[in-house]
Amino acid sequence: MTLDFEITISIKILTNRGGGIIINYSIKMEAFMKKLFFLYLLFPFVLFGFTNLKINNSTAPSVNVNDSLTLTGNFQGGDTSATIKFYYDANQNFTLDSGDKLVAFYKIYDGSPFDFDEIKNSYYSGYIPSVPVPMYMFVVGIDNGGADTISLLVNHISSSTTVSGNVTAGSNPADKIFVMASTDYGDYAAFTGTDGSYNIYLPDSLVGDTAQIILIDFVGNNPGYLGCMDSLVISGSDTKNYQLTFTDSTMLSGYIIDNLGDTLKDTATWFIGGGYLNGTTVQTLTAQTFLINGSYSMPIMKGLYFSNWEVDYSFLTDMYYPLYTNRKDTSLIVSGNTNFNILLFKNDSSIKGHVYVDGNGVDTFEVRCSATSDTVVGDMKTITYSDGRYILPVSTASDSYNVFVIVPDGYSCSPSLIPAACGDTGINFYLTQTGIKSEDNISKSSVKVKFINGKLLVSGNSDKNISVAVYDLIGSKVFEKTVSSGNGKFDLKLKNGVYFAEIKNGKNREIKKLVNIR
């Protein structure tokens, strides 16, 4: 889901007659912090037992950008949670050492709705976020007595559509700058080389779409410089050069704390985006810092008068999920050196219920809540278990919430929003399908059909040709193909949403619901 926000900067320019002119500058840009979920760096203080770490059933997987990643492993010593960390091989020596950069942190829980078997059995198997940038990296599963470490090689996709160029910091090439093209159908990125050049490969199907370009020096190779943001319409072979901005010595500092007054003493990287006035031109920037023991200090831009930054707390709460809830207020005005604490809300309660479709509990439906008694407390979310039940973590900083289920196209729900208090149970939602419904008593085929990054993958062992047809929610056929040998891969430029696949394999016929997310 894409969230847009607009920054409006009002500047009063004084004239020599004592009057003034008000100039409003509006910057509309994507809330890219949600897009940068993969980049946010956290280092855990508590270690958890986890062994036999694998990704896609391999201890040395090689994948492409944005490929689906399944992580598996075993909990040990009675642990039911684990910490998984991703390190970028920044010095490119194929060895995990102090020169490498932690680029992602995830917490996983045995028996959670994100664990495929949903059972507390000391074994975990579940999806983790895909990687948007080609790199060689290390994946580490933290263990009380040590750590399991495997390598992960991420390759660029095969494509003729590129965005390339050079990035400079002053008069020097900017090395290891993360450059990302963010689109409605996925994010694709590259690091600059020692000469400052970058080359992003994008799917050919994105030609004609708009991409938000985001530059961040998350490795820290160019101290004192801030990244920038831009947009372009993808033509197929685009060249864009960028100049990083040197800061004006304005400092932003503070702590990460929770609503109980405790400091979150983890190491993290914090990103924000904003705009400042430079003469008569508004420049858009990205800024970042590393936090140590919960405190941070970072250079930022004030600009000619002041700067306006948008803070997204969700990168922290996504990493800490389900322990904390973020804030809703996001605007930060910087008119000089500024102290700013990142305040999160500790989830110390829950709201429980079920989601039903046509009377049956359903899997992986998203349930959210919005605080009502304290509107500064941010939204929280979860997904349902396979039997339809959900456990929604909430903070008692707000004693009441509006709970709602995300209703996909092709479904209706009444009521779709239910008021609830912390600790409430039985907050149930009842949905009805309004689009194509799967027929009863259909023989199950051995053929698997799924969308991965907009591509329709058909796989299965069959000595017969397989007929696959895809329909949208109003019943219109959007794709049909006969696949020989039971395998096929098709790049369909379909909008995000719910579709249904009709599979015919000999006498077997099956209808499957598909969700397309690019």
Q: State the secondary-structure class.
A: mainly beta
What is the CA-CA span between the terminal residues?
A: 11 Å
Average pLDDT figure: 81
How much β-strand is present in the residues?
over 45%
The share of residues in helices is under 10%
Whole-angstrom Rg: 24 Å
Number of helices: 2
Shape: globular
Q: Describe the sheet with the most strands.
A: 14 strands, mixed
Question: Unreliable runs, pLDDT <50, ≥5 residues?
Answer: 1-48, 436-445
By DSSP, the count of extended strands is: 45
Give descriptors for this structure.
14-stranded mixed beta sheet, 518 residues, globular, mainly beta
Describe this structure in words.
Strands 3, 12, 13, 14, 15, 16, 17, 18, 19, 20, 22, 23, 25 and 27 form a 14-stranded mixed beta sheet that branches. This protein has a five-stranded mixed beta sheet with strand order 5-11-10-7-8. Strands 21, 24, 26, 28 and 29 form a five-stranded mixed beta sheet that branches. It is mainly β and 518 residues long. It is globular. 35% of the residues are buried. A hairpin with a 2-residue loop joins strand 14 and strand 15. Helix content is 2%, strand content 54%. The protein is built from two helices and 45 strands. The protein starts with a strand and ends with a strand.
